[in-house]
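User: Please fill in residues for this 164-position structure.
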């Protein structure tokens, strides 16, 4: 089991490295590094589940996957995650956060669909209007939660490393 878990873990770490490189090199507003980072998170989550119950799970519903972890594993991951940036992140509702991260992976890949039927100018005006209103998060097409994601990745990494 540990060989497979190590491959999963290493694969996720490669994606995180790639996301870091991509994020540092992009001059555009692409969300590619965020998508890759969320994919790495998914692999780490599935790896933790595999290490906890020996099952390889499929799917992209992170809140459903999270529930497959033992209570002890979730508590350990949450504790480490919270310690990563205690004053900066809100991890008080992990299931809701995981639903949002699922949306990043599922909808963020096809972001152009959010504005289907609109011209480039209309999309630009929509974005400017949103920013003018103070960029309210509840109105964002996609919410990325980069700090929370980093913390959860940190928690998962720590948990996995203690098991492999």
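Assistant: Residues filled in for all 164 positions:
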């Amino acid at each position: 089991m540990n060989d497979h878990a190590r491959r999963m873990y290493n694969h996720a770490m490669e994606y995180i490295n790639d996301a870091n490189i991509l994020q540092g090199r992009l001059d555009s507003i692409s969300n590619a590094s965020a998508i890759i980072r969320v994919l790495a998170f998914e692999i780490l989550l599935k790896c933790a589940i595999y290490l906890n119950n020996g099952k390889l799970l499929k799917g992209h519903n992170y809140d459903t996957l999270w529930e497959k972890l033992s209570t002890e594993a979730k508590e350990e991951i949450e504790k480490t995650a919270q310690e990563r940036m205690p004053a900066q992140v809100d991890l008080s509702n992990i299931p809701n956060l995981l639903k949002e991260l699922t949306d990043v992976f599922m909808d963020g890949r096809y972001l152009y669909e959010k504005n289907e039927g609109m011209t480039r100018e209309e999309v630009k005006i929509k974005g400017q209007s949103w920013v003018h209103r103070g960029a309210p998060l509840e109105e964002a097409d996609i919410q990325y939660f980069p700090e929370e994601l980093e913390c959860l990745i940190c928690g998962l990494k720590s948990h996995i490393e203690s098991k492999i």
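For context: The chain has seven helices and no strands.
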